[in-house]
Amino acid sequence: MDPEGLALQLSPAALATLAEGWLREDCPGLNPAALVTGAAPACAALWAKSPGVLAGRPFFDAVFAHVNCQVTWLLPEGAPLVPVAQVAEVRGPTHCLLLGERVALNALARCSGVASAAAAAVQVARGNGWPGQVAGTRKTTPGFRLVEKYGLLVGGASTHRYDLGALVMVKDNHVVAAGSMEKELHRTAAALKAQFPNVGVEASGGITLDNLPQFCGPHIDVISLGMLTQAAPALDFSLKLFAEGTTPVPHARRA
After folding, report:
1. The domain spanning residue 53 has which CATH number?
2. Which of 12, 113, 144, 213 stands the most exposed, by the fewest C-beta atoms within 10 Å?
3. Which of 49, 139, 171, 240 is labelled catalytic?
4. Number of domains into which the chain is organized
5. Where residue 36 falls among pLDDT bands split at 50, 70, 90?
6. Burial class, 126, CB count within 10 angstroms (exposed 0-12 / middle 13-18 / buried 19+)
């Protein structure tokens, strides 16, 4: 699905609830910094400083909408990021813009990291001629599941199975017990398909980008990787204030 269309599936109420909870956690009481920054109108440029896939615009928007700021995007959802690139501009009262800054950046960085990992896994699978479904797992961060599941979709992966009865999962423990990963995995999958042609077979457990090709086979329907959410590094974004009418200048990321 077109990444831009994925945002239409997100409930506005759910987005608003998430944004409110994140902001309340980050600033549960008084905000003394607001006395210093004031309420004058301000502009800030959003910069991507690491490569990957842009994902999480709806969550970024929801945070800033909650603090009365407006976001103008310069790149579409799912766009490849080549640093240093300006991704968006944010406008609003200075104290509100700075109140939402860290929360919005955290959500965007995490979602983009998951999308980037998912896109890399899909690329490996397709590069090995495997047409099946690359998926995440239930190994998500509590309270952040919607963000991470959405990131998987933007990156081209599937969120995961929802009905255990509709899918047989061959995990690493089955492989160890059998003594041979490649032979037993694909032999078991072939036997299942022969007896139950409509049953989906999922391979899961200890799968990484390096060993993913070993799990690609004609009888495997889904390969799920917990590392897409558990181990995906967050992308590096920054939000920099600039004077209205001037052109923001990007700063290269330090090694």
Report:
1. 3.90.1170.20
2. 12
3. 139
4. 2
5. low
6. middle
**For residue 249, pLDDT beyond 80:** no
Q: What percent of the chain has pLDDT over 70?
A: 84
Contact 237, 48 (CB under 8 A): yes
213: how many CB neighbours lie within 10 A of its CB?
Answer: 15
Residues across the chain: 255
Q: What is the pLDDT of residues 67-87, one digit of tens each?
A: 999 999 999 999 999 999 999
Answer whether 71's CB lies under 8 Å from 60's CB. yes
Say which residues have a Cβ less than 8 Å from residue 207's Cβ, sequence separation at least 6.
215, 223, 224, 225, 226, 227
The three-class DSSP label of residue 46 is strand
Contact 225, 155 (CB under 8 A): no
171 is catalytic: no
Asked if pLDDT for residue 178 goes beyond 60, the answer is: no
Reported confidence tier of residue 196, pLDDT bands at 50, 70, 90:
confident
Beta strands 167-171 and 200-204, pairing class: parallel
